[in-house]
Design goal:
By secondary structure, the chain is of the alpha/beta class. The chain has 2 domains: 155 residues, P-loop containing nucleotide triphosphate hydrolases (Rossmann fold), CATH 3.40.50; 99 residues, Conserved Hypothetical Protein Ylqf, Chain: A, domain 2 (Orthogonal Bundle), CATH 1.10.1580. The protein has 11 helices and 6 strands. Strands 3-2-1-4-6-5 form a 6-stranded mixed beta sheet, sandwiched between helices. Helix 3 links the parallel strand 2 and strand 3. Helix 6 crosses helix 7 and helix 8 crosses helix 9. The longest helix has 26 residues. The termini are far apart. Bound molecules: guanosine-5'-triphosphate (GTP) and magnesium ion. Guanosine-5'-triphosphate (GTP) binds next to helix 5.
Length: 335
């Protein structure tokens, strides 16, 4: 079952963004540079369609620079799309966004027509951190868990430049299974919506494909290429004190350790997906989804069982007036 997380406050966020959008000049969508495809919210794409937009691959300090370059090239190649990588806590690069927004809405500016910029993206991606960096003070609350910002907030960057911080939003049905795992591993999904051991196993399976050497170095493991994922997780638990009384490995604890190490960058800069991989998963997810939908439609079209037809006929007969029981069909009228 893919991981899903669309709690009630995200419905309110969707409504708030929909209501705010008509007066927005530029949309900045923050993506997580470690999982750009999986962190791109299709619901936001739908809502903000047609608005001048900037894609920011945030947390690039935690991502693999080579893959970040591939993703930026992927987005830049799309018509009308501008993308850049960022570490939201760094002031100078963040301030480049101000000029980029002004360039996207050249007719706005000045006290009468202030530029209005909406910052949106998945939970915990760094929206509020970026706003604080831009405004130059802790104007909005941040924190290392999803769901810190609860309601939309307007911040004044300059007398003619407004920023709107929004609560993180996901989408009601995540059809790419890998995306659910990547979102959970990176901290975009509430802790109650996934199992740490399962997510850590998926994370290790993914990470070892490109970065097995990093895992080996971090946990002082011998060559892991012949080990199954759960054996690698057990080794991590053993190395890092994820043991139960009696010395048995606590895989849940080992899972937490692995996820936290990934999130804090202890494995070095890691990106979980390339553009080509993500597009492949998306196509497979869409095909599976279409198949499921076709099956559901076929079930709904199932022929009515004979006993139901007979019952309906009996009921109709019981209700019909006497004359309708005449065996002779009425003559068609002559014209
Ligand atoms: N390493 C790194 N950490 C970042 C970056 N941007 C944000 N963070 C951290 O990510 C966590 C989440 O940041 P927030 O700014 O609260 O994220 P948000 O998108 O506003 O989250 P919600 O309000 O919950 O949707 C915090 O611990 C930040 O310090 C970045 O570019 N690099
Ligand atoms: Mg926030």
């Amino acid at each position: 079952m893919p991981i899903q997380w669309f709690p009630g406050h995200m419905h309110s966020t969707k409504k708030a963004i929909t209501e705010r959008l008509p007066e927005i000049d530029v949309v900045i969508e923050l993506l997580d540079a470690r999982l750009p495809g999986s962190s791109a919210n299709p619901l936001l794409a739908e809502l903000t369609q047609g608005k001048p937009a900037l894609k920011v691959l945030n947390k690039q300090d935690l991502a693999d620079p080579e893959l970040t370059a591939l993703w930026l090239a992927h987005y830049q190649a799309q018509p009308g799309t501008q993308a850049l990588g960022l570490d939201a806590s760094m002031t100078a690069p963040a301030r480049q966004l101000i000029a980029a927004c002004r360039a996207l809405a050249p007719l706005r500016g000045g006290m009468v027509k202030p530029l209005r910029v909406l910052i949106c993206g998945i939970p915990n991606v760094g929206k509020s951190t970026l706003i604080n960096t831009l405004v130059g003070q802790r104007a909005t609350k941040t924190g290392d868990e999803p769901g810190i910002t609860k309601t939309e907030q307007k911040l004044v960057l300059a007398s003619d430049f407004y920023l709107y911080d929004t609560p993180g939003m996901l989408w009601p049905r995540i059809i790419v299974e890998q995306s659910g795992y990547h979102l959970a591993a990176s901290g975009g999904i509430g802790r109650n919506a996934y199992d740490e051991e399962e997510v850590a196993l998926e994370l290790l399976a993914r990470v070892r494909q490109r970065y097995a050497d990093r895992l080996q170095a971090r946990y002082k493991l011998a060559d892991i290429s012949a080990l199954a994922d759960d054996a690698v997780l057990a080794d991590i638990g053993r190395r890092r004190g994820g043991l139960r009384a009696g010395g048995q490995v606590n895989l849940q604890k080992a899972g937490e350790i692995a996820i936290n190490d990934f999130r804090s960058g202890a494995w070095g800069g890691i990106t979980l997906e390339s553009p080509a991989e993500y597009l492949q998963w998306l196509a497979a997810g869409q095909a599976r989804d279409a198949e499921r939908q076709a099956k559901r439609d076929a079930r709904n079209r199932k022929p009515t069982p004979q006993r139901d037809i007979d019952a309906a006929a009996r009921a109709a007969k019981a209700q019909a007036p006497e004359s309708a029981e005449s065996p002779e069909a009425p003559e068609p009228p002559n014209d």
